[in-house]
Amino acid sequence: MIKNVSELRQDLVSGDWVVIATARAKRPHDFLKRKHRRPVQPKKDCPFETLKGKKVLLQYQHADNFGRNNKKNENNWFVAVIPNKYPAFGEGLCMVERHETLFNWMDGVGFHEVLVYRDHSLPLALFNQKETELVLKAYQSRFLNLSEKDCVEYILIFHNDGPEAGATISHPHSQLIAVPIIPPDVARSIAGSKRYFENRQECVHCVMVNAEKSSGKRIIYENERFLSVAPFVSRTAFEIRIFPKNHQPSFEKISHEDISFAADALRISLKKLYIGLKDPCYNFFIHTAPCRGEQYQHYHWHIEILPKTAIWAGFELGTGIEIATIAPETAAEYLRGIKI
């Protein structure tokens, strides 16, 4: 009998394939052997240590201290939103296409903001419930503000944690970029969601959420309104996706109560990674319907968390097929068992 050395799994939404390398699969504890470089920049050199001289777009106070030992004063802000000093997108003429022989291009018009958290060395994975709620509240507030701007077609909120995840400043912060196009990865996800809905009159993500609830094998954490899972088609070891259980196309339209439940699911998921993999570098981002998304009611917003457990090499770069060296069922079982 021939023993399979790997599995090819196809994403239900995009149609993309990934490899689960069962023959060279690692046990969860094998990932603890990786050494994560976590240099913390001195406060005196940190551009986010003070808001002095910066244009503050939004600021939330650390109300009632939230269990932290902070005195109430003018410096007692918890999260502040400022323009990125070196933006990837900025002012310009909106959607004016230009041509150069065979090629088309246009100005990179949009907005690039940074959400800075007050504590210089407290990682997002260790925020308490109220603090995580404020993070999502700030995300929502800026999303609603920028979605009304001219030229803004899509808004991506993301968090890079650690140098392997692309964070060039160690001080905890998230970013928001508003762009005049729908990014390719999002467009593929939306197209797949639309295709599935047109064929079956069902939301593909709702179908997957219900399947995961029935199976239970890949569930990491759940509360009344949100589900955290290791997706069947995991692009990297210990990938996590967080879905609202009820169908919701747009992140920015979530209720105050949903923010609380979403914060709980995000906080617990990040803390399980922090403890279980000993503070790995990671990225997370929110995939949601484009702005003014009335025609995207088939979509289902969610959060994707991607720990940096591997480096892309020739096969991944040459094919676009990612290889995970642990089955998501095993990863979920391990993370599920982490006590918070």
List keywords for this structure.
HIT family, subunit A; 22% strand; three-stranded mixed sheet; 340 residues; ten-stranded antiparallel sheet; alpha+beta; 15 strands
3D architecture notes:
With 340 residues, this protein is an alpha+beta fold. The protein has a single domain, classed as HIT family, subunit A (2-Layer Sandwich), CATH 3.30.428.10. The chain is built from six helices and 15 strands. The strands form three sheets. A ten-stranded antiparallel beta sheet has the order 3-4-7-9-8-13-14-12-11-10, with helices on both faces. Strands 1-2-15 form a three-stranded mixed beta sheet. Strands 5-6 form a two-stranded antiparallel sheet. Helix 1 crosses helix 4. It starts with 6 loop residues before the first strand and ends with a helix.
Question: How much is the radius of gyration in Å?
Answer: 20 Å
Query: What number of domains?
Result: 1
Number of strands: 15
Strand residues, percent: 15-25%
Average pLDDT level: 89
How are the strands ordered across the major sheet? Answer: 3-4-7-9-8-13-14-12-11-10
Relevant CATH superfamily: HIT-like
Separation of the first and last Cα atoms: 43 Å
- List the helices and strands in order: EEEEEEEHEEHHEEEHEEHEH
Class from helix and strand fractions: alpha+beta
Shape: globular
CATH architecture: 2-Layer Sandwich
Proportion of helical residues: 10-25%
Q: Characterize the biggest β-sheet.
A: 10 strands, antiparallel
- The CATH first-level class comes to Alpha Beta
Counted by DSSP, the helix tally is 6
**Which regions are unreliable across 5 or more consecutive residues at pLDDT < 50?**
69-73
